[in-house]
Specification:
The complex is a heterodimer of chains A (188) and B (431). With 188 residues, chain A is an alpha/beta fold. Chain A has a domain of 122 residues: NADH:ubiquinone oxidoreductase Nqo5 subunit (Beta Polymerase, domain 2, 2-Layer Sandwich). Chain A is built from 3 helices and 8 strands. A 6-stranded mixed beta sheet of chain A has the order 1-2-3-6-5-4. Chain A starts with 8 loop residues before the first helix and ends in a 39-residue tail after the last strand. Chain B has a single domain, classed as Cytochrome-c3 Hydrogenase, chain B (Orthogonal Bundle). In chain B, 50% of the residues lie in helices and 11% in strands. In chain B, the strands form 3 sheets. Chain B has a 3-stranded antiparallel beta sheet with strand order 1-2-3. Chain B has a 3-stranded antiparallel beta sheet with strand order 6-7-8. In chain B, α4 runs antiparallel to α5 and α6 runs antiparallel to α13. Classes of the chains: A alpha/beta (188), B mainly alpha (431). At the A-B interface, β4 and α3 of A face α1, β6, β7 and β8 of B.
């Protein structure tokens, strides 16, 4: 590379500035809490960690007094019409895992919404941080087919082991069982 | 209240995740290993896999336990659930918000009003409406009575499980007194569909104070009889004291709430610590134990019946006049009399009951203190008249995770006492 082609220092500084300006103008910076985008829903605090930040965030929140993982459930947003109230920078995916944490010392709750893509429905388990998620994570696996990496017993919990499909997914057929009133072949 | 610290909590958690008290076996493995296995040369095979349930008189519904036994002692165990699963959360997505209460009320059938309450509170939070004072006080009255009836049912089943068969009749007799009042108010003994988004279905009937006072006069004497029959009795104490012990740190790590958490001395009660309805305007004590054993869980529930009666007495005094439901035309159907005289009222009534009312988009989590612990409801609305997702955080579902840890190293005969003291309701666990 010749000297003539490398841009001068002044130019580089200018270029950097303009990139920052563009970023500030076009992409609104999300509000952060505990290092992840935060939003509010009906007065309740909701954090939006990425899948990589998720486990570290839960363990640091535990240090801050959120000792109890109260609830963990899944949501399938397939066919959800309106705006999902996600802060800037959080790309909506089909599935969400929603985790509720409770702090007894300052009597507050915090909620985590983690986006899970349809192509790779997997998330790290919280079992080693909060053993209380063992059953809820199994339920989410059973109902939505989201696998929890590192879970000690990733099996179905409510449906029979040999069941096909995940019932709480929005594209799961409701199904009907025909009711036979007369002429049933088996004796009652 | 916070009688523990993070270091103790972390060590308790690490013990729980590594001590192997949960038997994680697949169905086929359990079948292969079930029954007696002759000891081999390595000394293995003395442990025996045993099934308890799904049909068993003391499992409170169709709960199945797979137990790994070493002689009479339980080494590992696993509750197997799902036998009552009817997809109620999926059903909830197909029902309008007005119909939704009929669905959730069937989850915890021993405390149906709490399910209706938490569902209604979540919907109202999304709607942004506030129920008038009288409506809130009626809700509080009904929840406390329901707490009494639920704990009385526990007294009955707990007594029966432990061989105090007479107790079953007494517990049900007292519970029936409360249920008779429910029938007078809501029309039904159970599954009331009384607390609905926007308020309650009907005002209290005339003479409700007298009826309630009669109940409140009967029950204290009957509770004294319970004390005589069970609390002070040496056999009862021997069966329960020191059995199924759990520490506060273990309970917190396993997500246990309600009497299980409070039995460890950790006094956490949402009524006091995150007040909803008008619980900040009544006086009551949060009952906590100290040993975390079956006896503490029994006596906490007995004491909570007395506390609930104390709250009910205050509610009778403080019950305000006014509307029992919100007067918001979007949510409330018109009064019956208006339907006869106004075409618009008839259309309005028809619309609310066929299409339902629309709830603004958003998501919300609301929790109340049910007799079994924290009962939560998470609703996602897409702006239509049916919830996009309705999830119930059942306290029994989470509390059931304590079972393997409570039963570790205890005798088979104690499993019955331990299951009973967790007070699981299978309708809520399996949903």
């Amino acid at each position: 590379m010749s000297d003539a082609e490398t841009p001068s220092i002044d130019d580089a500084e200018l270029a950097e500035e303009s990139v920052e300006e563009v970023l500030e103008e076009e992409l609104p910076q999300p509000e952060l809490l505990h290092g992840v985008p935060v939003s509010e829903s009906r007065g309740q605090v909701v954090l939006h960690p990425s899948r990589d930040e998720y486990v570290a965030l839960v363990s640091s929140l535990r240090e801050l007094g959120y000792w109890m993982c109260v609830d963990l459930c899944g949501v399938d947003y397939l066919g959800y019409g309106p705006n999902r109230n996600l802060p800037a920078g959080v790309a909506p995916e089909r599935f969400e895992v929603v985790v509720g944490l409770l702090s007894h010392s300052d009597r507050s709750r915090i909620r985590l919404r983690v986006q899970i893509p349809e192509s790779d429905p997997e998330l790290a388990t919280l079992f080693l941080i909060h053993p209380s998620v063992e059953n809820p994570e199994r339920e989410v696996f059973d109902m939505f087919g989201i696998r929890f990496d590192g879970h000690p017993d990733m099996t179905r919990i409510l449906m029979p082991d040999e069941w096909v499909g995940h019932p709480l997914r929005k594209d799961y057929e409701l199904g009907r069982i025909p009711v036979q009133f007369k002429g049933a072949s088996t004796a009652r | 209240m916070t009688s523990t610290d993070l270091t103790t909590l972390n060590s308790a958690r690490d013990r729980l995740t590594s001590d192997g008290s949960v038997l994680r076996l697949s169905e086929t493995e359990a079948e292969q290993k079930s029954g007696y296995q002759a000891p081999t040369e390595e000394g293995l095979g003395e442990r025996m896999i045993m099934n308890m349930g799904p049909q068993h008189p003391s499992t409170h519904g169709v709960l199945r336990l797979v137990l790994e036994m070493d002689g009479e002692t339980i080494t590992r165990s696993k509750p197997v659930i799902g036998y009552l699963h009817t997809g109620m959360e999926k059903t909830g997505e197909e029902l309008t918000y007005l119909q939704g209460a009929t669905n959730v009320t069937r989850m915890d059938y021993a405390a149906p009003l709490f399910n209706e309450l938490v569902f209604s509170l979540a919907v109202e939070e999304l709607l942004g409406i506030e129920v008038p004072d009288r409506g809130q006080w009626i809700r509080m009255l009904m929840s406390e009575l329901n707490r009494m009836s639920s704990h009385l049912l526990f007294m009955a089943t707990n007594g029966m499980d432990l061989g105090a068969v007479g107790m079953m009749l007494y517990g049900w007799r007292e519970r029936e007194e409360v249920l008779r009042f429910f029938e007078a108010v809501t029309g039904l003994r159970m599954n009331h569909n009384y607390i609905r988004p926007g308020g309650v279905a009907a005002d209290l009937p005339d003479g409700w104070e007298e009826e309630l006072s009669a109940i409140l006069d009967i029950i204290p004497d009957r509770l004294a009889e319970f004390d005589l029959l069970m609390t002070g009795q040496p056999i009862w104490r021997d069966r329960l004291q020191g059995v199924g012990v759990i520490t506060a740190e273990e309970a917190l790590s396993l997500g246990a709430t309600g009497p299980i958490l409070r039995s460890t001395g950790y006094a956490w009660d949402l009524r006091r610590d995150q007040p909803y309805l008008k619980y900040d305007q009544v006086e009551f004590d949060v009952i906590a134990g100290s040993f975390g054993d079956c006896f503490d869980r029994y006596s906490i529930r007995l004491a909570e019946i007395r506390e609930s009666m104390r709250i009910v007495r205050q509610i009778i005094e403080k019950m305000p006049e006014g509307d029992y439901r919100v007067q918001d035309k979007k949510v409330t159907p018109p009064p019956r009399a208006r339907i006869d005289e106004s075409m618009e009222a008839l259309i309005h009534h028809f619309k609310i009951f066929t299409e339902g009312f629309k709830v603004p988009e958003g998501e919300v989590y609301v929790a109340v203190e049910s007799p079994r612990g924290e009962l939560g409801c998470y609703i996602v609305s897409d702006g239509s008249s049916k919830p996009f997702r309705m999830h119930i955080r059942g306290p029994s579902f989470v509390n059931l995770q304590t079972l393997p840890h409570l039963m570790k190293d205890s005798f088979l005969a104690d499993t019955v006492a331990i299951i009973s003291s967790v007070d699981p309701i299978m309708g809520e666990i399996d949903r």
